[in-house]
Amino acid sequence: MAEQIRAPKPAASFEYELFEGDPDHLRTVVATPTQTRPWIDPTSLKLKHRIGRGPFGDVWLATHHQSADDFDEYHELAVKMLLPLKEDCAKVFVNKFEELFPKFRESQSVCWLHGISVINGKICIAMKFYEGSVGDRIAQQRGGKLPLPDILRYGIQLAKGISDLHSIGLLVLNLKPSNLLLSEHDQLVLGDFGIPYLLLGRSLSDSDMALRLGTPNYMAPEQWEPEVRGPISFETDTWGFGCSIMEMLTGIQPWFGKSVEEIYHSVVIKKEKPRIPSGLPPAVENVIIGCFEYDLRNRPLMADILHAFESSQNAVYNDGEWTGLGSRALTDTSSVKGYTAWYPLKDHLQVGDTVRSRKPLNARKPQTVDVPAGTVVGLDADTDRNSSVLVKIPGLHNPLRVQESSLERVTFGLAAGDWVSLKDENSRHSSVGVLHSVQRDGSVSVGFIGLETLWRGNYSEIQMAKAYYVGQFVRVGANVFTPRFEWPRKRGGEWATGKILQVLPNGCLVVGFPGRFPLGHGSGSSLADPSEVELVSFDTCPGVVEKYKHIEDYHWSVRPLAIALGLFAAMKLGWFLAYKKGNFLSSDLEGQEKDERRVRTGTQREDAGEIDNIVERVENIVERVQCTTIHKSESSKRGEDISREKYSHWRQEQKTRAVSLEKQLNSRWELEELIKEQLNRFNTHYNHSSIPTYLKDVASFLMPRWTPPHELAALYWIGDWRPSAILDLARGLVRSPSSISSSSKSESSDTERLLSQVMHEIRIEEAIIDEEMAEIQATCVLHLPFASLNKKRLDGSALGFIQKEFKKIERVIIKAQQLRLKALELVVKKVLSPTDAAKFFVAFERIQNAIHQVSEQQKLGKVLVTVPTKAFKTS
């Protein structure tokens, strides 16, 4: 790069004769021309040691050797060595610096510059060496806070220095106390003269440097992403000014202790502001509050800041009040929504200007006082900066006195805040933007997405464009396939519709999506280029379907609410139709009920005779049981008495249910409920909870000691009734001539055929269970150590094998219980009618009760019971 950027050769010295009174003795003097160019010979600079480091380079203490024929001097100065730049960028930077060098030297509020040089391929800027800075004084001060008079004095000097740079078109962008140098007379000068601004838009070799346009703790929101959230303007330095003053007031760096990402999230996303200490002069407090406005257009300019600080410099705080203020404090509110008091002052109204009512910022709500168009004919002589003006409106005889903040200047049909577009589109940036200023000579400045700074041109190059406001709904246009910013889609693939939440100074739209359910911890918003979106409203939606979709865009809960309302309406309609249909069929139902009453009246007598027949059959079974010889069982233990009581309770409940069934035979619905309840009770009785869980309880389950032996012989098959015996009882009921189910021969034959098929299947399953039980018993007997000679079977492994086989009994018992329940369900649900099912349960209970009573009577006897054989004949 040194070959590309060469320092020009210094101007040659010349000699002249100096007349000192004697024409015969003239003295020859060698004159050196005054330095007009900033170049310094790199060999004349000697770097000593580094004294500072920043985001754009290092600061070195150096010695500058200057010599001529008549002098030889050494100056101590500071050299700011920039990080490496690409060759083309370095050349542009040097040319710009050379152009501005004379203007830098004219300002007393900017550090004195000696020149520029190139050392080891790096650009070096030589400047006067200052012993200290405001940052050093804050560090030396107890508590870090500077006295208010010093802060006001430093603020005035700082505002003047920034104004000097703004006057030549430069932005500082790196304002912070360490860059505010102090001279030997305690005068503040700017140590950074806009290096970040000179590097703006240049391709930098350091990728991290490309992300920095200043120091993060002092950067304005638009400074983080100037092409997206910009543009960078004079008001950007206002934010840095406020941060520097805040550090002087508190002694603490803004957003101290936060990382770069956290500062970005606080400043750009959450729009946080530093807390301003109390006790300041009102004018200073208001202007500092204005420095931290998120929208740069609402921040004060340096002239407003300078006015506020100068007016408060002689202020005295006494007894809770400030005295000696130069002027009244400027209020921080405006009569127009969305604006601060600083925004209208930028119009600088003059007599002869065309004005109109100021529109609310980024909103469509009209102004309260409507001034369509008028001409300023007079200015208020009040020294208050928020004064009023006289406006001559066509059609009115007398001019109106209107507050200045409620008016906006219109020049060539344009006013600050209007939406404009370029007549000749530029692919580098968006074609639609927001007008920031229009001067009386026709020059304009516009903020466009894609430009880091304001676009400057003439009013003839732009035209009015469609305006966008907060609260409108937009979506990506149909002719846009790849938008500038990421944009979500709906389930069908079409672009989602969002609501404008904010309009940035360059026209960039911050769009939220209330119609999408919020997920995660993201912000749930996207950015949009106004040239790529289209407005969505009920007027632009064709058809009812599109209008309903637009309603869903208002909130994500609209769709589920609509579905819920639709289901509710469908249910209401269904109930209404069912009610109407019920009234229509009510007459038919009444006729059917009358027929059923006649049938029940005719069958009640048959039911009584049927029950008598069942009782007679039960008595015959009892006589057969009495013919068996029964031996007296052993006395039961205390635990067996408890089991006997439980069994008696179970019998009593069965008997009670049977009586209820008998009483409710005439009620069909109650009868079905009772049958279902009785079947559930059998299900509970046959479930796994009644199965023994320990081996020692299996024998008691299969052969309970509290049950008489003859009852076991009559009923028990693996703990209870044999399923085929239950089906035999049902078949006897079906074959009964008085059975209700036998109303016709065809129905009776079908029922008996079905019952025979079921009995065949049940007996096959019974045989399988019997074989499994016999196999378990045989296996256990085979491994039992009956003989002393078989010593090998006395070990623990043989007993363990027996125990393992014995556990299989539990599985067999479960299958037997399930088979019983299956037989009962088939009889009640598939074979018998509800009335016959009720009779079946009554007969089933009476048979069990009769057998149990006979067994109990025989158990109480002391001798064997013998029943004559003729009882079998009579039965």
From TrEMBL:
InterPro entries: Kinase-like_dom_sf (IPR011009), OCM_Kinase (IPR053293), Prot_kinase_dom (IPR000719), Ser-Thr/Tyr_kinase_cat_dom (IPR001245), TGA_domain (IPR025422). Residues 45-310 form the Protein kinase domain. One of its GO terms (molecular function) is sequence-specific DNA binding. It comes from Citrus clementina (Clementine). The lineage of its organism: Eukaryota, Viridiplantae, Streptophyta, Embryophyta, Tracheophyta. Residues 640-861 form the DOG1 domain. CDD domains: STKc_PknB_like. One of its GO terms (biological process) is DNA-templated transcription. This is Protein kinase domain-containing protein. Pfam families: DOG1, PK_Tyr_Ser-Thr.
